[in-house]
Design goal:
26% of the residues lie in helices and 21% in strands. By secondary structure, it is an alpha+beta fold. One of its GO terms (molecular function) is iron ion binding.
Length: 278
């Protein structure tokens, strides 16, 4: 694999991303920083995981308290690569850290995160240790990003988290109908997999239950769009999002949490399609 010097991708890498929906890139990330992420995030996993290391576990937005997570999410080389791929400035808005494979069913991130205009969201998955066939690699379907962005309504499912399992079942049927074939994300420590928002993917089975599979995901929107959550939207009433962009420097101040009644009011206004509630 060709390393991306200062984040600059080759023409072949860019073409491969648009053809296959993902690329694996070596950004020469700081190995010591990756080790620090594993060490510092570990205590934040739920007690259930610490009692049973095979229990599903993740930490969302650890960048708020662990600077190494923030530094990885805002790495300038990754930002340069993303801007080459989608021709807009990338805006990181969420991190997820995992100690083991997710074993998630196949899905598209576009049901969780979408944009107006469409197509301006991407994920970057960084291996914090070597990933092979036995410790729960990613599973993805090359080229599936070229399919339409399927909403829950496209499958005659009412939008909402409570119906997500039904959506997953429909996506699996779609995979079968299209005859799609999966590949596994076998990455070395420090390598990054960049994927298109509409790429169908999930988590493969963890064959060796004694092992970990530490990783960090950063989700990016891109500049100049409106952002919304399709799973909580209808065609005429998008559930708009107003992300807080992960800052490039450690001297940031998080916005104060709004009182519970105000958060509820904003959610109601968004569901009514009243924009500008933030």
């Amino acid at each position: 694999m060709k390393a991306a010097v200062d984040g600059q991708l080759s023409e072949d890498q860019i073409a491969s991303f648009h053809e296959r929906g993902y690329i694996v890139v070596d950004f020469s990330l700081d190995q010591e920083m990756l080790d620090q992420i594993v060490e510092k995030v570990y205590p934040l996993y739920d007690e259930a995981y610490h009692q049973n290391p095979q229990a599903p576990a993740r930490v969302q937005d650890a960048w708020k308290t662990i600077d190494e997570v923030r530094r990885l999410a805002t790495d300038s080389r990754i930002a340069v690569a993303l801007e080459q791929l989608l021709k807009r400035k990338p805006l990181p808005f969420q991190t997820l850290n995992f100690p083991i494979g997710t074993r998630q069913h196949t899905h598209s991130d576009s049901v969780h995160f979408s944009t107006i205009p469409k197509g301006f969201m991407a994920g970057v998955w960084v291996a914090l240790e070597d990933i092979d066939e036995n410790n729960g690699p990613l599973s993805y379907y090359p080229g599936s990003h070229k399919l339409r962005e399927y909403s829950m309504q496209d499958f005659n499912i009412e939008p909402g988290v409570g119906n997500y399992q039904e959506y997953e079942e429909c996506i699996q049927q779609l995979v079968d109908d299209e005859g799609l074939k999966p590949e596994l994300g076998l990455l070395k420590k420090g390598e990054a997999l960049i994927w298109h928002a509409n790429l169908l993917h999930g988590g493969a089975a963890q064959e060796d239950l004694s092992r970990t599979r530490h990783s960090q995901v950063t989700h990016f929107y891109f500049e100049g769009c409106q952002y919304y959550t399709p799973m909580e939207s209808t065609e005429d009433k998008p559930r708009f999002r107003h992300p807080y962009w992960i800052p490039n420097t450690p001297d940031f101040k998080l916005p104060e949490d709004r009182p519970f009644p105000i958060r509820v009011l904003i959610r109601v206004l968004n569901r009514l399609g009243i924009r500008g509630a933030s």
